[in-house]
Specification:
The complex is a heterotetramer. Chain A is globular and about 65 Å long. Chain A is α/β, with parallel strands linked by helices. Chain A contains 13 helices and 16 strands. Chain B is α/β, with parallel strands linked by helices. By secondary structure, chain C is of the alpha/beta class. Chain C has one domain (about 25-310): Rossmann fold (3-Layer(aba) Sandwich), CATH 3.40.50.970. Chain C is built from 12 helices and 10 strands. In chain C, the strands form 2 sheets. An 8-stranded mixed beta sheet of chain C has the order 4-1-5-6-8-7-9-10, sandwiched between helices. Chain C has a two-stranded antiparallel sheet with strand order 2-3. In chain C, α3 packs parallel to α5 (about 105-115). Chain C is globular and about 60 Å long. The termini of chain C are close together. Chain D is an alpha/beta fold. Chain D has 5 helices and 6 strands. Chain D has a 6-stranded mixed beta sheet, with helices on one face. The chains are: A alpha/beta, B alpha/beta, C alpha/beta, D alpha/beta. Chains in contact: A-B, A-C, A-D, B-C. The interface between A and C is large, with 46 and 49 residues.
C-alpha cells in the first residue's frame, strides 16, 4: 500500500514494526518529529515500548546503551549538537560491540548555529566505530531502518542511519508501506548473548591495558570490514522479501562513462536529474551514491569507477583545514589500487544551502575545464559574503 | 585476545597478598582478670557463659579451677577486679559478686562436680594419693585429682575440714554451712576425709580425741603425698607470755571465736599487724562490741606505688570495710613494749617506723627513738604472721622423696586462700605428671596479656556495675555480702569486654576491603593470598584478638 | 566464581587492586553483599570501576557493566526500562563515586530520579577525584588539601564548602534518600534494606574514607568515618519525599580536631594562625549541621553509641548464600 | 535550458507562521496524491515563530519526483497574507501566465499594476475562515480556491485529504475546515465567473 508520508513519519512507522522495547530521545530539530510520532504510537498502544524522555541526548544514548546491554531492542534519534553531545557514548557503544540502532537527522553544526541540512554532524563521528548508512528518499529511510536492525544484530555493531534533515524528515513523499508479518519474518526476535543477567553474572565494559587495547580495536576493525558483506546480505534479503533492493552503493548509469558523480543522501535526486539532462545532450555521465559510508566500500567503488576518467565528489561535509572527507578517502583508495583518475572534490549544501541542478551542471562544466585549483571547490560560494569573517 | 565479557570473580588469580608489609594474626590472649587470678580461673570464659544465662555451664567452667566459688565469692580479695580493663571505660566488672552468685546458685540447685574421665582405674592405674591438710590447697589438690579419677585421702588434725577457711575466717565473712556444703561436693567425688588425725612422728600434746599416722606408713601406703599443711605457727612478739587476759595470737583468737567459744573481752583491744588476719580479728572484735585499734607497721594503700611491699598487706576492700565498721588503724607504727601495771595490762607503747625492711628485704622495722606513744588497751592481739610448722614431718621433707609435693602457704606462697587453691591445682597436675609420666592437658595461662590499649572501646556500650557495692550490704553498721539475681547477674556478665578473646562480633569480616577474612561456623580465617595488611581488622577488633605483625606470616 | 565464604556472596571479591585499607571497596562490599547476586550493577568510571575490572579480570560476581564517567544513572535507567519491558523484577544498582554523582554525573542522576526509574543509586563519597590522583570535587570539604586546591601563601586549601547533595537529591521529592558510612554497619544495613523495599528511585550517600587521598593510616579508615559522624561533620540522616524522616543522634559531640588531626589533607590547618581560623570555620560547619538535623536532641534511641555496640554473634549479616547447587549453575552459566 | 523533468507542476505557498502554510502544502499534496499524481510537499522553515514569513512547496508530476531542491520557478503562488506582498520576493520566478491566489478583502488588486502578466485571484479568505473556524486561518479557503483554478486537486480529494490530515483533531474541526474549503471553492468559481 502506497501512502504520502512525511519522512519522520515513515521512519517512525518502520521503527514501530521492528518493535523496540525501549525508546529514549531528546528533542532537537529536525529530528523531533520522529520521536513525536513514536511517542504517539506508544500513547495509542500501537507500540508497546518504554518511551523515555531523557534529560539530554547524552542521557538518551546512554539509556539505549543500557537497554540493549540488558537484552532489549532499542531506538534513539538525534542530530547536530545532540549527536556531538552523544559522541563519548557513541564510541563506548561501538567499543562494547552493542547492536544499537539510531537515526541521525543530518543537520549542520554550530557556530554559527544553523538547523538546516548537511552531513557535518554524522561525518564528525565517522571514526566512532558505527556503521553509517546515508539514505536518499523517505522510502529508503523506512526500508533501511529494518535493515539497520538486521545488520546491527548480525554483526554486533551499532548502526547510524543518516537521513537529511528537513529535505527528508519534513518532506511528504509517497511511500510503499511495510507489512508487519514480512518484517517479523525478515527480522528475528532480538537476542543478545552477552546480555546482563543474574544467570550469567559477567562483567561488561572492563578496562584494558597497553598489552591488549590494540587487540580490542583490531577485532572491532575486522568486524567493521566483515560487516560490508552483511550490509549487502541485508539488502538482498530485503529485496527478496519486499521487492526493493539496496546495497553498499546505488549506481545510476555509472557503467563505462567518462564522468561519474559520487554523492550521498538526498542530493542524489538532483544529480539523477542532471545526469539525465547531460546524457540527453550526449555527454558520457553517470552517478554513484555512497549508501554505506562506514565501512568504506573501497572495492565496490573502484569496480564502478576505475573505467571512468573523471570523478566528481559532491559532499555536504569536510574536514576543516584539510579537504572533503569522501573525496579524500576515495583518492586514498584509488591510489592504493594504483588507479589514477582525477577526483574533483566539491563541498556543497552546507547549512541547508540548496544544491540545485544549475549548481551541479556548473560543477560539471568546471570539471571538464580541468582540475580545480584548490584541493576542493565550495559549490556556489558567495565569496564577498564570507569576507571579513562575515 | 580481547574478551568482550569477563568471567565473574576472575580477579582471584591476582594474589594481592604480595602487597603486604604487615600481617594480621588472630590469637586468643589471656585477659588481665584471669592473668591476676591466684587460682587462674578462666574468668572471661565463665562470664561469657553467664552472659548467656548458661549458669551451670558457667559454674562448671569456674570450678574447673576453683571448687569453692561460694566460699571465694565471699573471702577472695579479687585482684581480678583491680586488673579489669573495664575500669578504663566505666567501672570494673563485678567478678567477685558473679563468683558468689554462681557458687550460691550451685548450692541452691545441688549441682554436682563431674569426673573428667569415668573409667578411672584405666586412667589412673588405681594410684592412691594422700593429701595432708584439708585447707584450700589440700581441698583444691584433692579435688583436681579426684576429678581425674584418682583415689585421694585427705588427713587433717582439726575436727573440721577447711583449714584456715574454717578456723581463721569469722562467720560474718564465711558462714560455716557454705564452707561445709562446698567441701561436701568435693568429697562426693569419692575423696576420703580423715579428721582429728595428725601425721607425723611427734609425741605428747596433740588435741583429743585423736588419731596419729606415721610418715612411714604414709610413704608406704600412698603413691604420692601432698602437703598442704598451711602456716599455722603464729609469729610471737618478743618475750611476752600469752595469757588469755592480756595477750592472744590472731589465729588462736579467730579459731576460738569460730569454735563458738564465749570469750570475756575487755572494752579496749589493740590488734598488732597489717595482714588480713589482723583485719579479720579487728572486725570480729567490733562485732563483739570492742573498741579496736590496729597498729600496722606499713603505710596505707596507694602510698607506695613504687614498692607496694611498704603498704598494708591486708586487702584494700577489707581495710576500707573495717574502717567503715569503726576500726581505727594506725599506720607506720610498731609496738616497742607492752605496758603493765602489776599483772594488769594497760596498753602498748608504740613508735613510728623508720625502715620497714632490712637490707635483705626481710620485714624488720627500725623504730624512731623518741616517738614513743602509749595506746591504751586491756587486751593485745598479735597478728604478725604465721610460720609453717614442720614438726613431725621432717622425714617427709628432708628425705627429698620425689613422691612428696608441697603447696599452699606451706610452700611459702602469699597467704591467700585463692593462691592456695591455685597452688593445689598446680601440684595436682605435677602429681599426675609424676604418676602417669605424662603432662596432663590444661590451658596454660602463660599468654600475652591484653591491656585496654589493645581494645577498641568505641564498640562497647557504657553500662555501670549493678550497684557500686553489688555483693555487699550494710547490716547494722556491719558490711555483709549479698548476691545478685539472675537478671542483674546476666547484665553484669554482659559487661565483660572479653579482653583478647574473640567473641565473633564479625567486625573483621565486615570491614576487610579485600574479602581476605573468611567466616567459618565458629571462627574466622585469614586468606593470606589476598590480605593486603591494611590493619583495619586489628584496629577495629573490639577485644584485641587480632595483632599486626611486621614480620610476614605465611 | 569464588565461593570461599559460606556466609556472604563476596559480590566484590578478592584480587581487586584497591589501595590497602580502601574505604570504597569496604563500603561496596557491604552494600553489594546486602543486595546479593540477583541484581544488575552499573558502575561509573572511578576508582571502584578501575580497581575491580581491568586487564581481562573482574572482581565482580554479579552482572556488572561500566559505560562512561557521567552516564551511569542513564545506563541504569535503560537497563531498568528493558527489565520493565520484559516484565522482570530485578534490582538495578548504580555505584558511583562523588565525581560521578555530585559533579559530572548529576544531570543524568537528576533525570533518572525525575523519571522515577526503579533504581538504587549508591554514591561512595570519598570527597575528591581519587582515581585521577586526588583533585578537588564538588564534594571536597572546606579547607581540604587536594592537588588542585593546594594550600599556599594565599590559600588554605579548598575555598568552597562541600555541596549539600543529599538536599539536592531529596528536593526531587525523592521517595528515599539517606546518608551512611562504613563505621556503622547496622545503620548501613537498615538503609540498604529500606531502599530495596521501595519501588522507585532511591539514593544512598556513603562516606568512604580514602587512605591515599585523605592521607591517613590505612588501618584508620573505619575510625575516621566514625569520627566524621561523631563530630557532626557528616550527619547520618534519612529523607523521604523531601522530608527528614530519621537521623542518627550523636551520643556525644566530638570536637572536629579529633577528626581533622588524623588526616594529612587537613594537616596544614594545624601549622599557622589562618589554619586555626579554618578549624574554627569547620567547627562552625559541624555545629550548623548538628543544629539543622537536631543531632544532639533528636527524639530517637538510634544513636552513634547504640549503632556501634557489638555483640557476641555479630551485628547483623548478609543475604543467605545461594545453595551449592545454585553456584554450580552459575559456574556453568558463566563458564 | 529545458529539462526532461520540467513537466513538474510547482506551487509555492507564502504565509506567516501560524497561518497553517505547512498544513496547506501537506493537505494539497495529499489531495493531489489521492488524485493519482506523484507529489512532494515540504516547508522552508526559518527558525520560524508565529508571525514570521514562511514558505512551503508542493510539486506535482506524472512520474516519481527525485529532486529535493526548493522551488524557484513556481507555476502558482498562494499568498496567505497580503501584507507579504510588500516584499516583492513573493512573485520571484513565477512563470509567465502563472497563477496568483491572494488572500485579500479585494481592494488590493489595483496595487498589482505590474502583474497583469499573471492570472490573479483574490479572495477574502480571512473573513470566510473566521465564519467557519472562528479564527482567520485562511489555508483551507485558499486550497478551495486552488481547486477552482486547477484540475490537480478536486473538492472530493481535498475533503479526503483534510479528513486524513486533521483526523486527530476530531470530526468537528474536520467539518469546519471542509466547509471553509468549500466556500473558498465556490467564492473562487463565482469570482472567476464575473
Amino acid at each position: 500500500m502506497r501512502k504520502l508520508l512525511e519522512g519522520s513519519r515513515a521512519v517512525a512507522e518502520a521503527v514501530r514494526l521492528c518493535e523496540p522495547q525501549v525508546i529514549a530521545a531528546y528533542p532537537i530539530t529536525p529530528q523531533t518529529h520522529i520521536i513525536e510520532h513514536l511517542a504517539q504510537f506508544v500513547a495509542d498502544a500501537e507500540l508497546h515500548a518504554e518511551f523515555i524522555n531523557a534529560e539530554s541526548e547524552f542521557g538518551a544514548i546512554s539509556i539505549v546503551q543500557g537497554a540493549v546491554a540488558a537484552g532489549s531492542r532499542a531506538f534513539t534519534a538525534s542530530a547536530s549538537q545532540g549527536l556531538l553531545l552523544m559522541t563519548e557514548v557513541l564510541f563506548n557503544i561501538a567499543g562494547m560491540r552493542l547492536p544499537v540502532v539510531m537515526v541521525c537527522a543530518n543537520r549542520a553544526v554550530s557556530a554559527p548555529i544553523n538547523i538546516f541540512c548537511d552531513h557535518q554532524d554524522s561525518m564528525s563521528v565517522r571514526d566512532a566505530g558505527w556503521i553509517q548508512l546515508y539514505v536518499e528518499t523517505n522510502q529508503e529511510a523506512m526500508d533501511s531502518i529494518v535493515q539497520a536492525y538486521y545488520i546491527a544484530e548480525h554483526c554486533e555493531l551499532p548502526v547510524m542511519l543518516c537521513m537529511d534533515g528537513f529535505l527528508l524528515t519534513h518532506t511528504f513523499e509517497p511511500v510503499e508501506l511495510l507489512d508487519q508479518d514480512t518484517v517479523k519474518s525478515y527480522l528475528p526476535t532480538f537476542t543478545f548473548n552477552r546480555m546482563l543477567s543474574p544467570d550469567q553474572p559477567h562483567t561488561l565494559g572492563a578496562g584494558s591495558e597497553p598489552e591488549n587495547y590494540l587487540e580490542y580495536r583490531y577485532a572491532q576493525h575486522q568486524a567493521m570490514d566483515k560487516s560490508a558483506t552483511i550490509v549487502t546480505a541485508a539488502g538482498d534479503k530485503f529485496a527478496a522479501a519486499f521487492g526493493r533492493s539496496y546495497g553498499l552503493l546505488d549506481c545510476y548509469f555509472s557503467q563505462d562513462v567518462e564522468t561519474v558523480f559520487v554523492t550521498l543522501g538526498s542530493a542524489m535526486g538532483v544529480v539523477r536529474d542532471v545526469v539525465d539532462t547531460l546524457r540527453a545532450q550526449g555527454e558520457s555521465v553517470g552517478a554513484v551514491r555512497l549508501r554505506c559510508f562506514r565501512p568504506f566500500p573501497a572495492e565496490a567503488l573502484l569496480a564502478k569507477l576505475e573505467k571512468s576518467c573523471r570523478v566528481i565528489v559532491l559532499e555536504k561535509a569536510f574536514s576543516c583545514g584539510a579537504s572533503g572527507i569522501v573525496a579524500t578517502e576515495l583518492r586514498a583508495a584509488l591510489q592504493l589500487a594504483g588507479v589514477s583518475l582525477l577526483v574533483h572534490g566539491y563541498i556543497c549544501g552546507l547549512g541547508g544551502r540548496d544544491l540545485t541542478c544549475k549548481v551541479v551542471e556548473n560543477i560539471y562544466q568546471q570539471s571538464l575545464a580541468g582540475p580545480i585549483a584548490q584541493r576542493h571547490g565550495f559549490a556556489g560560494i558567495n565569496v564577498t559574503s564570507s569576507e571579513g569573517g562575515g | 585476545m580481547s574478551k568482550l565479557s569477563i568471567d565473574p570473580g576472575s580477579s582471584v588469580t591476582n594474589l594481592t597478598g604480595s602487597w603486604r608489609t604487615q600481617t594480621p594474626v588472630m590469637k586468643n590472649k589471656w585477659p588481665p582478670c584471669g592473668q591476676t587470678c591466684p587460682a587462674s580461673e578462666d574468668i572471661q570464659a565463665w562470664l561469657a557463659l553467664a552472659s548467656e544465662s548458661q549458669w551451670q555451664a558457667a559454674w562448671r567452667k569456674l570450678t574447673a579451677r576453683n571448687p569453692l566459688p561460694a566460699v571465694m565469692g565471699r573471702v577472695c580479695y579479687h585482684p581480678c577486679e583491680s586488673a579489669c580493663n573495664r575500669k578504663h571505660l566505666d567501672s570494673a566488672v563485678n567478678i567477685h559478686a558473679m563468683e558468689y552468685f554462681l557458687g550460691e546458685m550451685a548450692l541452691a540447685n545441688g549441682w554436682q562436680h563431674q569426673k573428667l574421665n569415668d573409667n578411672e582405674n584405666n586412667a589412673t592405674g588405681g594410684k592412691k594419693i594422700a593429701v595432708v591438710g584439708a585447707g584450700p590447697a589440700g581441698l583444691s589438690c584433692a579435688y583436681q585429682l579426684a576429678l581425674r579419677g584418682y583415689a585421694v585421702t585427705i588427713f587433717d588434725a582439726a575436727e573440721e575440714a577447711g583449714g584456715t577457711l574454717w578456723s581463721g575466717i569469722p562467720e560474718y565473712r564465711l558462714p560455716k554451712n557454705i564452707l561445709k556444703q562446698e567441701i561436701e561436693a568435693i568429697l562426693k567425688l569419692g575423696v576420703t576425709l580423715v579428721l582429728n588425725c595428725t601425721i607425723g612422728d611427734i609425741h605428747g600434746n596433740a588435741p583429743h580425741p585423736h588419731k596419729r599416722i606415721s610418715t612411714e606408713s604414709l610413704i608406704t601406703d600412698y603413691d604420692a603425698i601432698f602437703l598442704g599443711i598451711g602456716a599455722l605457727k603464729p609469729r610471737l612478739f618478743q618475750n611476752s607470755q600469752y595469757t588469755d587476759q592480756h595477750v592472744l595470737t590472731g589465729m588462736d583468737f579467730l579459731r576460738r571465736v569460730n569454735q563458738g567459744e564465749e570469750l570475756s573481752l575487755p572494752k579496749r583491744v589493740a590488734v598488732i599487724g597489717g595482714g588480713n588476719t589482723a583485719i579479720d580479728v579487728a572486725r570480729c572484735l567490733r562485732r563483739l562490741d570492742c573498741d579496736v585499734t590496729v597498729v600496722c607497721a606499713q603505710d596505707p594503700h596507694g602510698a607506695h606505688l613504687a614498692h607496694p611491699g611498704a603498704e598494708i598487706p591486708a586487702s584494700e576492700l577489707e581495710v576500707t570495710q573495717a574502717q567503715r565498721e569503726g576500726v581505727e588503724i594506725i599506720y607506720r607504727t610498731a609496738v616497742s613494749r607492752l605496758v603493765y601495771s602489776g599483772k594488769h595490762l594497760n596498753g602498748v607503747e608504740t613508735c613510728r617506723v623508720d625502715k620497714i625492711h632490712d637490707r635483705h628485704g626481710n620485714f624488720n622495722p627500725v623504730l624512731f627513738e623518741g616517738t614513743e606513744t602509749f595506746i591504751a588497751a586491756n587486751l593485745v592481739i598479735f597478728a604478725i604472721g604465721q610460720e609453717v610448722d614442720w614438726c613431725g614431718l621432717e622425714r617427709l621433707i628432708d628425705s627429698g622423696l620425689s613422691k612428696v609435693f608441697i603447696g599452699g602457704d606451706a610452700a611459702g606462697n602469699p597467704r591467700f586462700a585463692a593462691t592456695a587453691i591455685g597452688s593445689g591445682f598446680e601440684n595436682a597436675m605435677s602429681i599426675i605428671d609424676y604418676l602417669s609420666g605424662q603432662k596432663p592437658y590444661f590451658d596454660t595461662h602463660k599468654k600475652a596479656e591484653v591491656t585496654y590499649k589493645n581494645l577498641n572501646l568505641s564498640y562497647y556500650a557504657q553500662s555501670h556495675r549493678q550497684t557500686e557495692n553489688a555483693g555487699e550490704k550494710e547490716n547494722s553498721g556491719f558490711v555483709d555480702t549479698i548476691s545478685l539475681n539472675e537478671s542483674t547477674a546476666c547484665k553484669e556478665a554482659l559487661r565483660c569486654l572479653s579482653c583478647g578473646v574473640c567473641f565473633y562480633c564479625d567486625n573483621c569480616w565486615h570491614f576487610c576491603p579485600d574479602a581476605a577474612i573468611i567466616k567459618q561456623a565458629d571462627n574466622y580465617t585469614i586468606d593470606y593470598d589476598f590480605c593486603k595488611g591494611c590493619g583495619i581488622c586489628a584496629q577495629e577488633c573490639p577485644c584485641g584478638y587480632i595483632d599486626m605483625h611486621t614480620v610476614l606470616h605465611e | 566464581m569464588d565461593r570461599r565464604d559460606r556466609f556472604r556472596h563476596n559480590i566484590l571479591t578478592s584480587g581487586h587492586s584497591a589501595c590497602s585499607g580502601c574505604g570504597e571497596a569496604m563500603a561496596s562490599r557491604m552494600v553489594t553483599d546486602l543486595i546479593g547476586p540477583d541484581a544488575i550493577y552499573i558502575g561509573a568510571t572511578g576508582c571502584l570501576q578501575v580497581f575491580s575490572s581491568h586487564n581481562q579480570r573482574s572482581a565482580w560476581q554479579a552482572p556488572w557493566m561500566h559505560s562512561v564517567f557521567s552516564n551511569a544513572a542513564a545506563v541504569a535507567a535503560g537497563v531498568e526500562a528493558s527489565l520493565q519491558a520484559r516484565g522482570k523484577k530485578i534490582p538495578v544498582v548504580v555505584q558511583a563515586g562523588d565525581g560521578g554523582t555530585f559533579d559530572i554525573g548529576l544531570q543524568c542522576l537528576s533525570g533518572m530520579i525525575e523519571r522515577g526509574h526503579n533504581v538504587l543509586f549508591v554514591c561512595y563519597d570519598n570527597e575528591a577525584y581519587m582515581n585521577t590522583g586526588v583533585q578537588r570535587s564538588g564534594s571536597t570539604p572546606h579547607a581540604v588539601r587536594t592537588s588542585t586546591s593546594p594550600p599556599g601563601r594565599v590559600s588554605e586549601g579548598k575555598h568552597h564548602v562541600k555541596k549539600d547533595l543529599i538536599s539536592i537529591i531529596a528536593a526531587h521529592h525523592m521517595p528515599y534518600a539517606a546518608t551512611a558510612t562504613v563505621a556503622y554497619f547496622p545503620d548501613l544495613k537498615a538503609k540498604v534494606e529500606k531502599a530495596l523495599s521501595i519501588d522507585g528511585p532511591k539514593f544512598l550517600q556513603i562516606l568512604s574514607p580514602c587512605p591515599l587521598g585523605w592521607n591517613h593510616d590505612a588501618a584508620l579508615s573505619v575510625q575516621v568515618s566514625r569520627l566524621a559522624v561523631e563530630t557532626g561533620l557528616f550527619p547520618l540522616v534519612e529523607l523521604e519525599h523531601g522530608e527528614v524522616s530519621r537521623v542518627m543522634r550523636l551520643s556525644t559531640q566530638k570536637p572536629v580536631e579529633d577528626y581533622l588531626k588524623l588526616q594529612g589533607r587537613f594537616l596544614h590547618l594545624f601549622n599557622d594562625k589562618q589554619g586555626k581560623t579554618q578549624i574554627r570555620h569547620i567547627q562552625a560547619l559541624a555545629d550548623t549541621r548538628i543544629r539543622r538535623y537536631g543531632l544532639l536532641d533528636a527524639d530517637t534511641n538510634w544513636t552513634s553509641a547504640s549503632a556501634s555496640i557489638v555483640q557476641r554473634g555479630g551485628r547483623g549479616t548478609y543475604l543467605p548464600v545461594v545453595p551449592a547447587g545454585m553456584s554450580d549453575h552459575n559456574a556453568k552459566a558463566q563458564g | 535550458m529545458t529539462h526532461m523533468h520540467s513537466a513538474i507542476y510547482e506551487i509555492r505557498f507564502h504565509g506567516r507562521g501560524g497561518q497553517g502554510v505547512v498544513s496547506a502544502a501537506a493537505v494539497l499534496a495529499l489531495a493531489v496524491f489521492e488524485n493519482g499524481y506523484e507529489t512532494q510537499a515540504f516547508p522552508k522553515f526559518g527558525s520560524e515563530r508565529r508571525g514570521a514569513p514562511v514558505e512551503a512547496y508542493v510539486r506535482i508530476a506524472q512520474r516519481p519526483i527525485r529532486t529535493h531542491t526548493q522551488i524557484y520557478t513556481p507555476d502558482v503562488v498562494i499568498i496567505q497574507d497580503a501584507t507579504l506582498m510588500h516584499c516583492a520576493s513573493v512573485f520571484d520566478g513565477l512563470k509567465p501566465g502563472g497563477n496568483i491566489i491572494l488572500n485579500s478583502a479585494g481592494t488590493i488588486k489595483t496595487q498589482l499594476l505590474n502583474h497583469e502578466a499573471y492570472q490573479c485571484l483574490t479572495i477574502a479568505a480571512n473573513d470566510i475562515a473566521q465564519k467557519h473556524l472562528s479564527r482567520p486561518l485562511p489555508n483551507m479557503v485558499l486550497l478551495g480556491a486552488f481547486a477552482a483554478i486547477s484540475d490537480y486537486a478536486s473538492i472530493n480529494t481535498l475533503k479526503t485529504a483534510i479528513a486524513g490530515h486533521l483526523q486527530s483533531k476530531g470530526k468537528k474541526i474536520v467539518q469546519s475546515n471542509v466547509d471553509a474549503m468549500m466556500e473558498g471553492y465556490e467564492t473562487a468559481i463565482n469570482g472567476i465567473g464575473t
